[in-house]
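> tool_call: predict_assembly(chains=two)
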Amino acid sequence: MLFPFAVVLGALSLALAAWSLVGALRAARPSGGQLLLAAVLEVLVLVQAAVAVVYVVTGTRPVSTATFAGYLLTVVVLLPVGVFWGLADRSRWGNGVLAITAVTTAVLVLRLEQIWNG
Amino acid sequence: MADDGSTATGADADPRGRRPTLRSGPGRVLVAVYAVFALSAGARALVQVLTDFSAAPLAYLLSAFAAAVYVVATVALVRSSERSRRVALVSVGVELVGVVTVGLLSVEDPVAFPDATVWSGFGAGYGYVPLVLPVLGLWWLVSQRPRRVV
C-alpha cells in the first residue's frame, strides 16, 4: 500500500474525530465543514481502495487477501453509513456518532496497512 | 435534546410499544458502537472458525458467541420497542458477564486462550471498550424503562 497515503488518511480521520468530539462536548450538531471533511475522506478512501484493487489484480498481494478485502470493503462503506446514521439525530449525539465513525475509520486504515505488510 | 427521557411518560406512548427513544440521543451512539463490534467480532469469528478452528476451539466458539451477543444487542437497540429493550438488557447483561469471565480466564489461564477473542484481557485489544460498553449499555437501557404514572 501507499504508506504516505495511509498516513494522510489516518490523520484526516483523527482530525474529523477530534472535531466531532469537540462538537459533541459543546452540544452542537454536526456542521457543514465536518460533512465536507467526511466527504473528502471518503473520496481518499475510494482512491486508496482503487489503488489496492489494482495492486491485487496485478499480482502484488498481502498474505491474507481475504481479510484485507474484508477490511477494505468495510472502510469504504463505513463513512457513508456512519454519516447517514449520525445526521438522522440532529443533536450533540449526531456528533458522537461521527466521532466513533471517524475513530473506527482510523483504526481500519491502520489495520489495512498492517495486513498489507503482513 | 428537549425530548430526552421525557417521552416515556405514557401520554405519548405508542400503543404498539414502539420506543424511538431507545435509538436516539445517547442510544444512537450506542447503536453505532454496537454495530462496529457486531461487525468486527463477527468477521473475526468467521475468519477464526473457517481458517483454523482446531487451533483453539474454545476461544473461537467464544468469539462467535460474543459476535452473536453484539448482533442481538444492536438489532434490539435499533428496533426500539419495549420488548426489544428487554432483549437488549439480557444480551448486554450476558455481554458484561462474558467480558468479565473471559477476561479473568484469559489472565488466569492463557494456555486455554492461545488466540485472542474480543473479550480476552477484558477487551484490551480493543482499547477496553468491550468492558466499558456493557456498563454504558445497561445504564442507558435501565434509564429508558417505561415509567407508569399510576
